[in-house]
Amino acid sequence: MKKKILLLMLATIMAFTGVFGFTACTSDTPPGSDPEEKHEHTFSTEWTSDEKDHWHRCTGCTANTPKEPHEWDSGTVITPSGCGTTGTMKYTCTVCGREKTETTPAGSHTFETEWSYNETDHWHAANCGHDLVSEQGKHQWNEQNVCTVCGYRMQYTEGLEYRKAGSVQNAKLIVASIGTATDTDLVIPAYAQVEGEMLPVKGIDENAFSNNMSITSVIIPEGITSIPEQAFFNCKNLVSVSLPDSVTAIGKAAFSDCSKLGNIELPEKLTKLQLWCFKDCDSMTEVTIPWYVQYIDSAFLGCDSLKKVVFEKNNTLIKIRDFSGAFSGCRALESVTIPEGVEAISTEAFNGCVCLTSITLPDSIETIEESAFKNCTGLITITVPENVTSIESNAFSGCTHLIEVYNKSELAITAGESSNGYIAWNAKNVYTPTSGSSMLAYTDDGFVFIPDGDTAQLISYIGTDKEITLPDSVTAGDGTVITKYTLSETAFDFSPDITAINVSPENESFTSVDGVLYDKTGLKLVRVPTGRVGDFVMPDTVYQMEYFAFYYCAKLESITFNDRITTVEYDCFTGCSGLTSVTLGKAVNDFNGSKLEGSSCPNIREIKVSEGNKYYKDYDGVLYDYDMTTVECLPYGISGELYIPDGVQYLGSGGLRSNPNITSVSLPSSLKRLGYGFYNCSNLTSVAFRGTMEQWKKVSGTKVNGAQTWRNGAVYDAIVCTDGSIQRTQDKK
Predict the structure, then answer these.
(1) Which of 395, 307, 380, 382 lies closest to 344 in space, CA to CA?
(2) 6: number of Cβ within 10 Å
(3) SS (H, E, C) 73-110
(4) How many Å apart are CA 349 and CA 299, to the nearest integer?
(5) How far is C-alpha 82 from the chain's CA centre?
(6) What is the pLDDT of residue 156?
(7) Are 301 and 329 in contact (CB under 8 A)?
């Protein structure tokens, strides 16, 4: 018994001394001491911890007290959780003070119990502060035109004219016309009463609302399955249309020439977009083609503002069978990705899409049909999928900027050849998966280059910025960094809104002043931004200019050349459709005014010549030679009465050709040659000759290419001479 008591006392003493730091160290020693020397542990009062436990360390060695788990408090909210968003809680150990944070789960959104609705849909709105809806759906109408789900009563258009159709058992109504209705916001009811009988409205007649200039919006009810031919043709003020999910076909010219009709949501079960159904809908900017659509026959022909086309991912069992001319003439269209499953790009599908810079064709494509991409001048490169076996005639005719072709097919495509629909006619590089590689170099900010040794050419800008900064260098495919490059004449043809072209001082090729591009010396004008507005006055420091300096500057109103420029090139004013005035400096001695014709500059009204010019003079906006004997250029925008002064002998080679604005002309007796005379002056109704008939016969007897051009395309009846004589246009001599 005594022995047991003794052992118990010994154990108690040992435990007591361990707690208070007097335990003998049997293995650990303090730094710098004899490894064999033992010491007693002294534990720090500060806690040491990790994510799970806490403990005290010995101040003289690596020993520690037994690890104990943290005892966390109930936590403090740092970021509260909400509906749709997680929160954050902070927890603190009540023993050692260590902290941790944990994410709390998001709560559920809450919604109103009452329905919200508009004219077509109903939903429950979120009441938790988020812009969300629940249980959204289309109205389901009963015979009282009340939605059976939400109770909304339709505010439909009164006065529409209907006709009865179908069997006695399945009678239905077809909307025949506008009738006596006066609503501009047209709502077609789901049910209508005719002759005391309430019947469902299941269709719209052909031409029902065609040429109506009052309608601004249309809501069509569920149950109508097609929009028939010309139903809303030429409704010039129609802005919006709501189509029900039941519509599967939109008929020929159904919305053609609705020039104000904006973007429209096409029903997901739609299968047919028939001929011209949205032709010339010039306010439409984007469209999504539902995946069931199989026919898009010239549906969007001439939609000038359409920039974006999206094809929904196709059901593997459904193929677009025909989209002949689908987007022909959509001049603003920029990029298209054709979905997998399409086997052919139909005839003229993208003909004339001049801004189309990117087209992605799926591997399922086998045929590219005739004129499919004709005149797509914005295309730079294209990949021919591996399964393509035929590229038909003129498929890529007029694609003047298509300089690179990646040929994955078995077709023999060679740069510079007209075969395979002219796809490689303008190509500088054709390569395959086993031969060659792309020579184009792209920058992250949208510039496209063609490297050539230690130089390169900037051929296009495909970015969207209005103020651009040209890169200081470009990296070729082999890793070569090129710092000197030139500018292609067409580099900005498809970027009409650029307001400034800037360069850094480090650029080795160009300099920029006030957003206008010059060569490195500043002596040569290279490019005026396409989006430049108003007037441009050429700096006195400029001695030369590129012939494409003003290409497609459609917003410029006037251009004034300085007194150092001597030559104004033939193509100088290409695409300057807003130009109204040009002033030539005193050094200009070579001016080709051919491009001031209507196709490029339909609004130019005057050409002025600076004082001191020894080669040209101006009179009433018309450009003459210095001696005032020859008409050098007649601005296309001059209208009304035109007076050619005495002394003029020659109307120039162009004459007054194809000017639609001149209504009358007075010619001097000094005139000797007409050139092309009055060829196709469509509004010219009066021509006076300030001389005798004998003198006029000498003038009219001169011919161009064997034709008496004063008579060709004549609208006027006769030439009236000062002596009272008249020569009628139908006279043979």
Answers:
(1) 395
(2) 10
(3) CCCEEEECCEECECEEEEEEECCCCCEEEEEECCECCC
(4) 10
(5) 39
(6) 96
(7) yes
- Identify which of 402, 421, 420, 401 has the alpha carbon closest to the alpha carbon of residue 410: 420
> Is the CB of residue 688 less than 8 Å from the CB of residue 667?
yes
> Comparing C-alpha atoms, which of 255, 343, 268 is closest to residue 302?
255
Here the tokens at position 264 are 């429209």
Q: Average pLDDT in the 688-710 region?
A: 86
Q: Note whether 480 and 449 are within 8 A (CB).
A: no
C-alpha torsion angle, residues 472, 477, 479, 482 (rounded to 10): -30
Distance CA 647, CA 556 (A): 34
Token couple for 343: 């086997």
C-alpha distances in Å from residue 425, one per residue of 374, 420, 451, 523: 12, 9, 20, 36
Q: What number of other Cβ atoms are within 10 A of residue 185's Cβ?
A: 14
Please check whether residue 703 is in contact with residue 711, taking contact to mean a CB–CB distance below 8 angstroms. Answer: no
End-to-end CA distance of the chain: 157
**Band of pLDDT at residue 32, cut at 50, 70 and 90:** very low
**Residue type (1 letter), 138:** K
Burial (Cβ within 10 Å: 0-12, 13-18, ≥19) of residue 304: middle
**One-letter amino acid for residue 165 of the chain:** A
Q: Which is it for strands 455-461 and 484-487: parallel, antiparallel or unpaired? A: parallel
Quick one: pLDDT at residue 729? 78
Alpha-carbon span 350 to 678, nearest angstrom:
37
Torsion, Cα 185 186 187 191, to 10 degrees, reads 150
The Cα 236–Cα 366 span in angstroms is 40
C-beta contacts of 598-602 below 8 A and 24+ residues apart: 598/636, 598/658, 598/659, 598/660, 600/573, 600/574, 600/575, 600/576, 601/573, 601/576, 601/577, 601/635, 601/636, 601/637, 602/577, 602/636, 602/637
Structure tokens at 518: 């010059």
Nearest-5° Cα angle at 501, 495 to 506: 135
Residue 56 in contact with residue 43, Cβ under 8 Å? Answer: yes
- For residue 596, give the DSSP letter: G
Query: Could you write out the three-class secondary structure of 646-698?
Result: CCCCECCCCCCCCCCCEEEEEEECCCCECCCCCCCCCCCCEEEEECCHHHHHH
- Cα–Cα distance, 174 to 160 (Å, whole number): 10
DSSP string, 246-277: T--EE-TTTTTT-TT-------TT--EE-TTT
Contacts of 332 (CB under 8 A, 6+ apart): 285, 304, 305, 306, 307, 355
- Which residue do the tokens 């005639």 mark? 393
pLDDT digits (tens, 9 = 90+) for 582-627: 999 999 999 977 767 666 788 999 999 999 999 999 999 999 999 9
CB 68 within 8 A of CB 55: yes
Q: Give the CB-side neighbour count of residue 540, counting CA atoms within 13 A.
A: 0
Tally the residues of the chain.
733
**How far is residue 140 from each of residues 24, 105, 157, 172, 281, measured CA to CA in Å?**
88, 38, 18, 17, 31
Contact, 344 vs 368, CB < 8 A?
yes
On the question of pLDDT at 708 being above 80, the answer is no
Please write the tens of the pLDDT for every residue from 286-335.
Answer: 999 998 898 898 999 999 999 999 988 765 555 677 788 999 999 999 88
Query: Residue 731 half-sphere exposure, CB side, CA atoms within 13 Å?
Result: 13
**Contact 404/439 with Cβ under 8 angstroms?**
yes
Buried b / exposed e across 590-610, counting CB within 10 Å, b at 16+?
Answer: ebebebbbbebbbbbbbbebb
Which of 211, 224, 154 has the alpha carbon at shortest distance from 178? 211
Average pLDDT over residues 698-724: 82
